[in-house]
Design brief:
Number of strands: 10
Order of helices and strands: HHHHHHHHHHHEEEEEEEHEEHE
Distance between the termini: 56 Å
Shape: globular
């Protein structure tokens, strides 16, 4: 299927599109289909949640009215849009969520009298295919799709609708425009982009005030930890910030980067010395968990780490082995209260992002917009516990929950100090930990809480 090019001179009929989007009859149809699906199936993720599902379904329904979709396929298309991310585990790259979601959708809809076996297969094929960059003929064969042309039309509508709602989370949404096929989709896309830009601009003054408040609070709490010169440098920066008009998140991020080096000093004092840890006392460790076999593991130039403590033992993907890191000056590039799946990309490569963070490398580093760089270890620990209580109703139980914080670090400015094994864990993990210890000549210590 050929994609049409949209030039910068494309005229957006704002009033026309706004009237379409706000038509109550469209939203009512979506809500009716949504009422047939239990809310328990929808994720509580930041972006790929029930709001995203409803928005995608709304846009898909609007598009369908402009591209001659058969009446019998309307409900199926709405269901596909509502359920397209039902298999997601997080907000990030999840290559299997289409396949997983298709099976969940089958389980949800197999008892629905609206569906036959053929239409169930069509629903599953659309959901599985929506996250593929190109049309996958194996999906057509897998679900025995007879009307391939109709399948591709419905799939493209869902892809368009999905892209339209992603204007909420993309720093430069226009990079997605070439992936959109239908003219009405492009109009909806640009309308959505404009609406989200207006919301973002209205939030900036508050963000500036929040940043000033955060730094003043930091000075109050950690005045004794700073030299006179450091204290005065921060105060001068705050005054300058308060007198400067801020128009972009990027500008605020540059101010955050200035203050971040002073936070790093607090991190260095707050983290537990691995060599002194005996396995019983309170601790705070910054760790990175190996996601590949020991023989393939190496510290990258930029990577993600997590703060664990005796109060919060959540790790990435519940991995019970962590390499303890000692941080240096300017080694922390960013801090988030939640798992943000930081990405490092080459120059001019565009990713799903909001913020650009400075690096010693000739690489651009992008992260999700949950990132809040200015946090101390104690604040991160408290926030992680509160988030876990909110989601699970209890403090972390070892091995039962995933990480709720993420720290982006410069690999050239950290040192590996040792390996912790969070007990109890399988023998396989003990073996992997030993291999890592041998590879990097590190000591191992157990954490058993």
């Amino acid at each position: 299927m050929e994609y049409k090019t949209l030039t910068n001179n494309f005229q957006l009929p704002i009033q026309e599109v706004e009237e379409i989007v706000k038509t109550n009859s469209y939203r009512k149809i979506v809500e009716e289909r949504l009422s047939l699906i239990s809310k328990q199936y929808f994720s509580i993720n930041k972006y790929h949640n029930i709001k995203h599902a409803k928005n995608t379904a709304l846009f898909a329904l609007i598009i369908s009215n402009f591209v001659n979709v058969a009446k019998k396929d309307i409900n199926l298309l709405i269901d596909a849009a509502l359920l397209h991310d039902i298999g997601r585990k997080n907000d990030f790259d999840d290559l299997e969520h289409g396949r997983v979601g298709a099976q969940i959708a089958y389980d949800i809809k197999k008892g629905d009298s609206f569906y036959t076996l053929d239409t169930l297969h069509l629903l599953m094929a659309i959901i599985e295919g929506h996250c593929q960059e190109i049309y996958d003929n194996s999906i057509i064969e897998k679900y025995q799709i007879s009307d391939v042309s109709n399948y591709r039309k419905l799939l493209q509508i869902l892809k368009d609708a999905d892209c339209i709602d992603r204007t909420r989370i993309i720093e430069n949404p226009l990079i997605l425009i070439e992936k959109i096929n239908y003219d009405i989709s492009k109009k909806l896309f640009l309308f959505s982009k404009k609406e989200n830009e207006m919301k973002e601009e209205s939030q900036i003054p508050k963000s500036k005030e929040d940043l000033i408040h955060t730094i003043n609070e930091f000075l109050t709490l950690y005045r004794k930890e700073l030299t006179k010169e450091e204290f005065l440098a921060i105060k001068r920066k705050i005054i300058y910030l308060s007198q400067t008009e801020i128009y972009s998140r990027q500008a605020l991020k540059e101010y955050e980067n200035f203050f971040l080096k002073y936070y790093t000093k607090i991190w260095q004092k707050s983290l537990t010395n691995f060599e002194d840890y005996n396995g019983q006392e309170d601790f705070k460790f910054l760790i990175t968990c190996p996601t590949v076999r020991a023989e393939n593991f190496n510290i990258k130039s930029v990577f993600s780490a997590s703060l664990i403590s005796n109060q919060h033992l959540g790790t990435f993907n519940k991995i019970p082995v962590g390499i303890v890191l000692e941080i240096g000056e300017d080694s922390i590039l960013g801090i988030s209260e939640k798992d943000m799946n930081s990405l490092v990309v080459k120059q001019n490569e565009v990713v799903n992002s909001y913020f650009y963070l400075n690096s010693t490398k000739n690489e651009k580093i992008y992260t999700k917009n949950e990132i809040i760089s200015l946090k101390t270890p104690k604040q991160i620990e408290i926030a992680s516990i509160q988030e876990n209580v909110r989601q699970n109703g209890n403090i972390l139980l070892l091995g039962n929950h995933s990480v709720y914080n993420d720290i982006l670090v410069d690999g050239e400015k950290v040192k590996m100090k040792g390996i912790v094994i969070i007990e109890p864990c399988d023998r396989e993990w003990h073996e992997e930990a030993q291999k890592l210890a041998n590879k990097f000549n590190l000591k191992m210590k157990p954490i058993d809480y």
